[in-house]
Amino acid sequence: MAGPNRALARSHQPVLLAEVIAALQPMDGAIYVDGTFGAGGYSRAILEAARCVVFAIDRDPIAIGEGRPMETEFHGRLHLIEGRFGDLSELLSRRGITQVQGIAIDLGVSSMQIDRPERGFSFRQDGPLDMRMETKGPSAAEIVNRMAERPLADLIFTFGEERKARHVAKAIVAAREIAPIATTLQLAEIVRRAIGSASDHIDPATRTFQALRIAVNDELDEIDRGLMAAEKLIAPGGRLAVVSFHSLEDRKVKSFLRARCGLGPKASRHLPVPQHSQSITFRLLSRNALRPSEDEIATNPRARSARLRIAERIHSDTGGRS
Fold first, then answer.
1. In the chain, at which end, N or C, are there fewer CB atoms within 10 A of the end residue's CB?
2. How many angstroms separate the CA atoms of 37 and 156, rounded?
3. pTM for this predicted structure
4. Distance (Å, rounded) from C-alpha 297 to C-alpha 251?
């Protein structure tokens, strides 16, 4: 199984790869972080662009295990760390690293996870209703079979931005009263029947699956923690590149960077200045998010919704934030 899995990993082309590398500008002797290693595409491109060192983090133990041959391939320049990118400051400090020249983060689920039915992320292939990136903790099946109808509807609406969340939650509760919902295709069919045909050519199950995945893996809080850790770690002149795939992720990254670049909402002149005003710690390298080219979308349809936001760390402290 390991051989085919490694071949599958090599076939996955990271989204906006050229743009991420152009933003990071890898330099000889510098240290970089790949906050979401996955199949290793960003790590490999950084290492091939310069004689540098990469610390690559992934919460998925399967991704770390399958990346070990690549770690050997780069002869001590790639260091794989199992953990969450929200904890990257602590993970690196244990290894004596307190500053890096650049950080790349590719948010959300990886192609490797989606393409393996046994991981339970896909609504197009049948598998156990799991969705755990770390393969531990409560699964998606536990949420859909145990959560009360109203909180379940709120979860699907908030994390999936599903307008028919109440219809979906009601259908799930009705179905589980007959038998537990155990597989991805079982849930997908329940959702499709509850929503009906989609007018936007997106599978009706998409938003519900997104909501459950985000909840299972605490993804939005992880983004907040990861961005603050990156702010702490990147040296002045270093770069941050963040790829997101849906509006909830992108809004968080956009809001963080705008605030740290001094582009947030201005306070009223009639109000007192806060004692701990926001420090300006980043400079935007592109005011708007970068998007994939038509050529990239044609070869990799999953790139269609991708957004890349890039910024440079400037000479300013973080005002005591940790």
1. N
2. 28
3. 0.87
4. 22
- Which of the 8 DSSP states describes residue 7? H
Cα–Cα distance for residue pair 268/105, rounded to 1 Å: 35
Among the listed residues 271, 306, 281, the one whose alpha carbon sits nearest the alpha carbon of residue 292: 306
Kindly give the confidence (pLDDT) of every residue in the chain, 322 residues in length, as a single tens digit, with 9 standing for 90 and above. Answer: 344 444 444 456 789 999 999 999 999 999 999 999 999 999 999 999 999 999 999 999 999 999 999 999 999 999 999 999 999 999 999 999 999 999 999 997 777 777 787 888 888 889 999 999 987 889 999 999 999 999 999 999 999 999 999 999 999 999 999 999 999 999 999 999 999 876 667 899 999 999 999 999 999 999 999 999 999 999 999 999 999 999 999 999 999 999 999 886 654 444 444 444 468 999 999 989 999 999 999 998 888 889 999 999 998 654 434 3
Joined together, the tokens standing for residue 100 give 């890096």
d(C-alpha 86, C-alpha 173), whole Å: 34
Rounded distance between C-alpha atoms, residue 194 and residue 21, angstroms: 43
How many residues are listed for the chain in this entry?
322
Name the token pair of 274: 């806060």
Helices of type H across the chain: 2-11, 17-24, 41-49, 61-73, 88-93, 111-114, 140-146, 149-160, 165-178, 184-195, 206-217, 219-233, 247-260, 294-299
How far is it, in rounded angstroms, from Cα 221 to Cα 83?
15
How many degrees, rounded to 5, is the angle at CA 39 between CA 298 and CA 250? 60
Phi-psi region of 96 (alpha: psi -120 to 50; beta: other; left: phi over 0): left
Identify the sign of the CA torsion 46, 110, 56, 85.
positive
Q: Give SS3 for 48.
A: helix
Is beta strand 234-244 parallel, antiparallel or unpaired with respect to 78-82? unpaired
